Amino acid sequence: MAAQRLYDTDGHLTSCTARVTACVPAGESWRIALDRTCFFPEGGGQYGDRGVLFPEGGEPVPVTDTREEGGEVWHTASAPLEPGTRVRGELDWPLRFARMQCHTGEHIASGLFHRLYGLDNVGFHLGDDVVTIDLSGPVTWPDVQRVERLANEAVSQDLPVSCAYPSPEELARLDYRSKKSIDGPVRIVTIPGYDVCACCAPHVSRTGEIGLIHFLSLQNWKGGVRLRMLCGSRAVEDVMAKQVSVSAISSRLSAKQEGVSKAVERLQAELEETKQRAAQLGRQAAEALSECISPGKPEALFFLELDVKAQRALVNAVLKRGTGVCGVFSPSGDGWTYIIGGDSSWDLRAVAKELGTALGGRGGGSAGMIQGSVPASRTRIEAWWTLKFVNKR
Questions:
Q1: Which of 25, 32, 204, 240 could cysteine-pair with 209, CB 3.0–4.6 Å?
Q2: What is the CATH number of the domain that holds 81?
Q3: CATH number of the CATH domain containing 210
Q4: Do 115 and 48 sit in the same domain of this protein?
Q5: Residues 186, 56: one domain?
Q6: What is the DSSP string of 39-90?
Q7: 64 domain residue, yes or no
Q8: Where does the pLDDT of residue 60 fall: very low under 50, low under 70, confident under 90, or very high at 90 and above?
Q9: d(CA 364, CA 348)
Q10: pLDDT above 90 for 231
Q11: What pTM was estimated for this model as a whole?
């Protein structure tokens, strides 16, 4: 006989007594079935409950997950329990309640998107770090903010949240949301004025328990959008953490908190201007350095702190002076970035492979120019260069 699912009628039940009806091995764990349970199995976009089983006269057995299979609720446990054993099951209640807050908050938000914009929730995942909602069509960020304000109004109204199994006749008259067709009894979660939806998961009993409903981001997703959101204590923690960041940025930039975005934009513009100026100076330095190379010199090797553009500019400038091959190595972390250029007598693609074999370098390019990185010391690079280019003159 399948377990009596106590969470179905009372989502706030944190513990229950039960009898073990089955216990089977599952890899390094065990799957335990009970005759009644307050543990919700994974479903409806929500993870399975965790907690502890306390057997009479035995050691506590942690439950790391709960799944449904073949109509039975299986509790994934770290140790076996004999069938017939009486146990007390206790949920990880803070985790369950946080999930309930997020799930009921999602119902309110999805109901509002459906009513206001005619959009369906076509994908939902309630992770323990963030909630994602996939909508069937596009919305703008102002649309999302409008829904967020209205959703938090629903929270402030402390509306009742009811879960029930309507009769087939009652169900036929109901206008409710559902992402898939359901065989058998349909459990309907109702939030008056906001949502009526088929759902198997436990929910809070009143909207006031949800606390804050807060959207984090919006991105285009498979013809619609994907929203990231948090509710309850998770949303509060997120807002508090971001406030710390905004305060720190505000202080560092000597800007008001409400003006940090514009301050960052100004800083980015200044940084881009500085980068452009640095690139220009790098090219000028490369031209000046190339003048130090005697025209027609067979090869040239530099170890300089230059960015990629300046490295390339120096290689090209040296090659114009009739040098057969030129390499520029610039420090990067524990190694070097490099650009090597050569005249038509060289096919440097083969040189890139040799550099990788000899010094562990990575890179590639064309016959006339290659670039990449190498973790070797300057001494080893110079020795390789001499063997490859200088001794072959």
A1: 204
A2: 2.40.30.130
A3: 3.30.980.10
A4: no
A5: no
A6: PPPSBTTBPPP-EEEEETTS--EEEEEEEEETTEEEEEESS---TT-EEEEE
A7: yes
A8: very high
A9: 8
A10: yes
A11: 0.75
The reply to whether 136 and 208 lie within a common domain is yes
Average pLDDT over residues 39-55: 94
How many domains is the chain built from? Answer: 3
Cα 73 to Cα 75: distance, rounded to the nearest angstrom:
7
Is 195 a member of any domain? yes
Please, which residues bridge with residue 123 across strands?
134
Whole-number pLDDT of residue 393:
57
Helix axes 260-290, 232-253, angle to 10 degrees: 50
Element (H, E) at 178: none
Buried b (16+ CB within 10 A) or exposed e, 168-186: eeeeeeeeebebeeeeeeb
Q: End-to-end CA distance of the chain: give it in Å, rounded.
A: 87
Q: What is the pLDDT of residue 44?
A: 82
Q: Does 287 fall in a domain? A: yes
**Co-location of 238 and 297 in the same domain:** no
Query: Do 323 and 190 share a structural domain?
Result: no
Indicate if 219 and 297 belong to the same structural domain.
no
Residue 57 and residue 86 in contact, taking contact as beta carbons nearer than 8 Å:
no
Query: pLDDT tens digits for 184-220?
Result: 889 999 999 999 999 999 999 999 999 999 999 999 9
Whole-angstrom Cα distance, residue 74 to residue 66? 6
Please give the pLDDT value at position 43. Answer: 85
pLDDT band at 82 (very low <50, low <70, confident <90, very high): very high
Domain that holds residue 30: 4-91
Rounded to 10 deg, the angle between the 308-320 and 260-290 helix axes is: 20
Q: Please check whether residues 222 and 126 belong to one and the same domain.
A: yes
Q: How far apart are CA 299 and CA 315, in angstroms?
A: 11
Q: How far out from the chain centre does Cα 26 lie?
A: 29
322 and 386 in a single domain? The answer is yes
Please give the distance of CA 61 from its chain centroid, rounded to a whole number: 32
Which CATH number do you get for residue 338? 3.10.310.40
The answer to whether residue 32 is domain-embedded is yes
**Contacts of 250 by beta carbon, 8 Å cutoff, 6+ apart:** 256, 257, 260
Residue 6 to residue 2: CA distance in whole angstroms: 12
Angle of helix 348-359 relative to helix 378-385, nearest 10 degrees, comes to 140
